[in-house]
């Protein structure tokens, strides 16, 4: 056994700590979610993710959660921290001192294990809105499709989405109606619609104009509030609603294919 002595050891011993209350769930042995508390060091530069990594590395290696980049880029570390959908790598433990800090899986998604949720529904919704450039005149030998800075500006805000799903977790409409396409997928559809190289707006509108596509949104605005990348999905939904309403009027006034 190693016994630490000296000023550094004394400093470590005196280090402040904070309690994190983490949701646990093992599908093989638990009937329902439970909570387990851990003491972790309270350091100024430690995020919630650092606290979880400390637990996994030194206290309980069975704790399960997702993360990758540690810098707000990959979008994989979303959780509910003190009841708010948050990126755990961008949320500091010291903001909740003296604690405790509740760390739960993202709401509105089925829990697979501990803080890991099933993202299958979200992935399906993303692909449903065709988030890629659609053209029927692609000639691979034609060279690049150049854009002006203004054309890039038109969609760049919506292209900042990192698919972290915080907006789905915050959305009360998605919570009540899982068929609702949801904020990030609609914002992504708008990202491609606004791209000067894309011709797929009509195809995406056909998907989103369905009842559950976008009409469920009651403009609560929680999606925009929690978005860590300032994508503002609520504004994308409102823009889409306007387009869908204009299209419905057009469809009444003009037969399909005319005009
Ligand atoms: S819109 Fe914002 S909150 Fe929603 S998935 Fe994208 S980055 Fe995350
Ligand atoms: S670990 Fe990548 S966004 Fe947090």
What layout of secondary structure does this protein have?
Blueprint: H1 7-13, E1 17-24, E2 34-41, H2 48-59, E3 78-81, E4 84-87, E5 101-104, E6 111-113, E7 116-117, H3 120-128, H4 149-156, H5 166-170, H6 172-176, H7 183-193, H8 201-208, H9 211-214, H10 222-226, H11 233-253
Parallel strand pairs: 1-5
Antiparallel strand pairs: 1-2, 3-4, 3-5, 6-7
Helix pairs in contact: 3-7, 7-11
Bound molecules: iron/sulfur cluster (SF4) and FE2/S2 (inorganic) cluster.
Mind explaining what this structure looks like?
The protein has 259 residues and is α+β, with helices and mostly antiparallel strands. 37% of the residues lie in helices and 13% in strands. It has helices spanning 7-13, 48-59, 120-128, 149-156, 166-170, 172-176, 183-193, 201-208, 211-214, 222-226, 233-253, and strands at residues 17-24, 34-41, 78-81, 84-87, 101-104, 111-113, 116-117. Strands 2-1-5-3-4 form a 5-stranded mixed sheet. Strands 6-7 form a two-stranded antiparallel ribbon. β3 and β4 (84-87) form a beta hairpin. The chain is elongated. The termini are far apart. The mean pLDDT is 88. Bound molecules: iron/sulfur cluster and FE2/S2 (inorganic) cluster. FE2/S2 (inorganic) cluster binds next to loops. FE2/S2 (inorganic) cluster (FES) binds at residues 67-70, 72-77, 87, 89.
């Amino acid at each position: 056994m190693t016994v630490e002595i000296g000023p550094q050891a004394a400093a470590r011993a005196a280090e402040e700590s904070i309690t994190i209350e983490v949701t646990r769930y093992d599908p093989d042995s638990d009937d329902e979610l439970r909570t387990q508390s851990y003491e972790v060091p309270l350091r100024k530069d430690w995020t919630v993710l650092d606290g979880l990594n400390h637990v996994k590395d030194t206290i309980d290696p069975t704790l399960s959660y997702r993360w990758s980049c540690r810098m707000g880029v990959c979008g994989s570390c979303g959780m509910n921290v003190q009841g708010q959908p948050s990126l755990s790598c961008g949320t500091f433990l010291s903001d909740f001192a003296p604690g405790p800090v509740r760390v739960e899986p993202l709401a509105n998604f089925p829990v697979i294990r501990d803080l890991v949720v099933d993202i299958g529904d979200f992935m399906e919704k993303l692909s449903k809105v065709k988030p890629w450039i659609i053209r029927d005149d692609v000639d691979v030998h034609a060279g690049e499709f150049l854009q002006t800075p203004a054309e890039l500006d038109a969609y760049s805000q919506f292209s900042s989405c990192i698919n972290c799903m915080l907006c789905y977790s915050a959305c009360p409409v998605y919570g009540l109606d899982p068929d609702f396409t949801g904020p990030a997928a609609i914002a992504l559809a708008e990202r491609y619609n606004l791209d000067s190289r894309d011709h797929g707006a009509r195809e995406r509108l056909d998907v989103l104009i369905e009842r559950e596509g976008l009409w469920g949104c009651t403009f609560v605005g929680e999606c925009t509030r929690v978005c860590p990348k300032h994508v503002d999905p609520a504004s994308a939904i409102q823009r889409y609603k306007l387009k869908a309403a204009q299209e419905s009027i057009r469809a009444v006034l003009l037969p399909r294919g005319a005009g």
